Amino acid sequence: MTVIAMTREMATRGSEVAAGLAEQLGLTIIHHELVEHDIAKRTGMAGSEVHRLLEGEASLLARWTTDRRRLSRYTAQEILELAAKGNALIRGWGAPYLLRSVQHVVCVRICAPMAFREKVLMDRLELRDANLARREIERNDAAHNGTMQKLFGIDWADPALYSIVLNTARVPIRDCVDHIVRLSESPAFQETAQSRGELADQLLLARVRSVMDKRFGATSRQHGFDAHVEGGKVTLTGATTDEKLIVEVVRLLQGIEGVERVESKISHIAFAPHGPSDP
Questions:
Q1: Euclidean distance between the first and final Cα of the chain, in Å?
Q2: Which residues, 6 or more positions from 36, have their beta carbon under 8 angstroms from its beta carbon?
Q3: Residue 56: which of 117, 139, 171 has the closest Cα?
Q4: Are residues 207 and 77 in contact, defined by beta-carbon separation less than 8 angstroms?
Q5: Taking 50 as the threshold, does the pLDDT of residue 60 lie above it?
Q6: Are 110 and 6 in contact (CB under 8 A)?
Q7: Contact of 8 with 17, CB cutoff 8 Å
Q8: Is beta strand 226-230 parallel, antiparallel or unpaired with respect to 233-237?
Q9: What is the pTM of this model?
Q10: pLDDT recorded at residue 45
Q11: Strand, helix or coil at 234?
Q12: Strand partners, 167
C-alpha cells in the first residue's frame, strides 16, 4: 500500500515528478481541491475560504478570526484519512510532516535554485521579466511556509522532514521518479503491521481530537482535555469539577470509528464552597 507525501516548490517541475510516480506506481494524486473540499465540510467553512487560508491568501480579518488550532487538526485528520486508504501521492498541506513517523510513507521534497525556477515559470507563463517571475515565486514560497508555520509550527524547507530531497536543476525528472520508486520499493519502506498500527493510531487520535473540539470547543481546552491512543485504546487526560462531563466525553468517544476502548484518567476536582469562618 504505497503512500508518498510530497512537497514541491513552485516552478520546480514537481508536478511532472508526481505524474511520473503516479503512472509508474499506480497511485492516485490527491489534488488540493479534494483536500480543501473535505476540510471545508469538516470545519463548516466555505471551500474558497479554506483555499485562501491554506494558500496564505486570506485577509487579515480572516486570519485573525480563524481558529488555527481547529483548522490544523481537521487538516491533519484529512491527510491521515487519505494516507490510510493507501496507493496515494499526497501533495502539500504538511503531509510529509504529518506522516513522517509512519515507516512505509516516503516523504519527498522537490526543490531547485531560484534561477532555474525563474526560467521554468517564464517559459510556462511566456513571461519576459525575470524579476516578475522571481517576485511571484518568492510570494508563493513565503505564503506556503507561513501557512505551515502557523498550522504546524514547522519550516517546510527543513530537510529533516523528508526521506529524500531532489534538486530538479541537477537531477532529471526521469531520474527523480526512478530514485523515489526505488526508495518506495526498498525493504525500509514496506508496509508492516507496526507501520499500519502507527498510522491507525495517528488517525484515531486525529478523529478523537476533532470530535472533542467539535462537541466541546472551548470547554475542552478549558479543562485541558487531551487523549493518547495506542492499539485502538484511547486514554483521556485533563481535570474538571463536572463529573457528568467526564461521562459525556467517554460516551462520545466510544462511538468513534476505530475506538476499541476508552479509559478516563481525567481528574475529578471536588468543589468545596466556602462556608462561614470559624471563630
A1: 74
A2: 47, 50, 51, 54
A3: 139
A4: yes
A5: no
A6: yes
A7: yes
A8: antiparallel
A9: 0.87
A10: 74
A11: strand
A12: 111
Are 123 and 63 spatial neighbours (Cβ–Cβ below 8 Å)?
no
Confidence of residue 130 (pLDDT cuts 50, 70, 90): very high
- In the chain, the largest separation of any two C-alpha atoms, in whole Å, equals 89
Dihedrals phi, psi of 37, to nearest 5 degrees: -60, -45
pLDDT tens per residue, range 230-279: 999 999 999 999 989 999 999 999 999 999 999 999 998 876 555 555 54
Higher pLDDT, 144 or 33: 144
The four Cα atoms 98, 101, 104, 106 give a dihedral, to 10 degrees, of 60
Find out whether 74 and 43 touch, Cβ atoms under 8 Å: yes
Which residues share a beta bridge with 261? 233
CA separation, residue 175 to residues 5, 21, 104 (Å): 18, 11, 21
Question: To the nearest whole percent, how much of the chain has pLDDT over 70?
Answer: 87
Give the C-alpha separation, 33 to 18, whole Å.
16
**230 SS3 class:** strand
Encode pLDDT of 8-35 as tens digits: 999 999 999 999 999 999 999 997 666 7
As a whole number of angstroms, the distance between CA 235 and CA 96 comes to 27
Domains and CATH numbers, the chain: 3-189 (3.40.50.300), 193-268 (3.30.1340.30)
Asked if 152 and 97 touch (Cβ cutoff 8 Å), the reply is yes
